[in-house]
Amino acid sequence: MSAPDAITRAPVLILLGPPGAGKGTQARMLESRFHLKQLATGDMLRAAVAAGTEAGRAAQSVMEAGGLVSDDIVVAILRDALDAPDAAAGVVLDGFPRTEAQAAALDALLAERGRQVDAAIALEVDDAEMVGRISGRFTCAACGEGYHDTNKPPAREGVCDNCGATEFSRRADDNAETVRARLEAYHEQTAPLIAHYARLGTLERVDAMASIDAVATALARITERARS
Ligand code: AMP
What we know:
With 228 residues, this protein is of the alpha/beta class. Helices cover 47% and strands 14% of the residues. A 5-stranded parallel sheet has the order 2-3-1-4-8, sandwiched between helices. It has a 3-stranded antiparallel sheet with strand order 6-5-7. Strand 5 and strand 6 (146-148) form a beta hairpin. Helix 2 (41-51) crosses helix 3. The longest helix has 16 residues, at 212-227. The relative contact order is 0.20. The site of adenosine monophosphate has 17 residues, from helix 2 and helix 3. Residues 19, 41-42, 45, 62-63, 66-69, 74, 95-96, 98, 102, 173, 182 line the site of adenosine monophosphate.
């Protein structure tokens, strides 16, 4: 029995897709629309590098080369984030899991907490376009809003639409050479997870070459279903 105002559950969503597919942009949109918590392991690792923690020191050179940080480090970071109070209303995982071992660790972590992956969403894109998409992107240094030189420039040049700040930053690993290594890591180690979630019956495929708004609409529909 379902009703339009049925009580909603706290969903666990995964965004799968190569660098540049729009995982971060879409995760932030889901966060503001559905009050889900975006858990982006890349952001957490960059914060660890900036803070000079042990995990950050171990991760830095691997990230600069476009490889994958060890499963142990990433799973430990993710476990802490899952247990934070702000993850209680549901999470959208952005950039995790990236290997079969991480997917297995996630299934176990969730099972221990009486939760499960409700939807694994594959953002499907054309690889050839990814290098251009990534090399044009930048973010607001104050609020983290994402932009792109041609696809999504701020409405007023040099001013963040979201918070009005005027400082922006570009990621060190968003250069053509590192992007190619990141795409290779994705195809070798992460793309096989699509079959993992297809087997579990939780896979959803979304055409992520469509506009940001069209992709957001598709993801909102999937999220509504996952919550009810
Ligand atoms: P991202 O911001 O998701 O593009 O991640 C940036 C970099 O952080 C990646 O190229 C990896 O070096 C590292 N990283 C992020 N998430 C993971 C993960 N789940 N497993 C291994 N490495 C990761």
